[in-house]
Amino acid sequence: MDQSFPKAFRLLRREEFQGVYARGDRVVGRYVLVHVLPNQLGHPRLGVTVTKKSGKAVVRNRWKRLIREVFRRNKGAFPPVDMVVTVKRGVELPSYWELEKDMLSLARRL
Fold this sequence. Notes:
Elements: H1 14-23, E1 25-28, E2 32-38, E3 45-49, H2 57-73, E4 81-87, H3 96-109
Parallel strand pairs: 3-4
Antiparallel strand pairs: 1-2, 2-4
Helix pairs in contact: 2-3
């Protein structure tokens, strides 16, 4: 599968995020909380939110990069859903492999 992360695979607008929050379901993992809403596009789309309570800008940006990278490398493992990934409060920044394991286990539960 293609390893890119084009705009077609991203949630970009506020309305898209709000729709997932309002009409979607929640799945909780060790590091992240995922709101999911099935879509008719035939592929998954990702949105990421990291609150200021997660740390300073460097830490928040690292979280976002890690989450996007896990999604980019494993797009085929996710069903066709719109998902918003939110970092859980008070969780230390995991390694890439720990986060990948957590997100793939969540993907199987979607």
